[in-house]
Amino acid sequence: MSMPAFLPAGPGLSLRPWRSRDARELIDAYRDPLLRQFTRTWPEDEAGARAWLAREEAGARDGSRYSFAVELAAQAPDGTGPAPSGVRDPAATGLLAGCVVLKVFPHDDDRPARTDTAEVGYWTTASVRGRGLAGRAVLALADWAFTALPALTRLELLHQVDNEPSCRVAEKAGFPHHETLTPHPPVFPLPGHVHVRPRPGA
């Protein structure tokens, strides 16, 4: 399945596939201590950023993950503010505001592939937090996922209990709390929340 070149996420915000020229902004984004607190790996330099981008591109090719850059639009043509994403040029370049990713559960030696469930992940850059952009980006990704993958019956969003902002993002994007997971140290030292959004109309 090919990724769309452009997904609107409300006024001034859009999703698009990652590009090689995003490497520098990606490195800068991951310098944020809060982002590092809730992620396990991150690019430290140009080579690491290129490897990160290559992994996301490979995931789209093999159907295991579909990762989008979240882009905040540049000024509208009249200079009054962000351009509505529905009229933006998909090739235009704005501010990198974050990432959203759809992780499709693959087949492995211990379990069959799960085509009915996928996981949503996201992060936002420090400069745009608190503006409601994460919820809009997650909602746009979820809507696209249910359209692009007809076998999906539900999407999951997981986070540790100490990441309270992710609870709010999940709720705003239509992912109510479903269950609490037990800790699995050292990778997951705290309990986790599972938020679930079922397919609309299911």
TrEMBL record:
Protein name: GNAT family N-acetyltransferase
Residue ranges annotated for the N-acetyltransferase domain, each copy included: 21-191
Pfam short name (any one): Acetyltransf_3
Domain of life: Bacteria
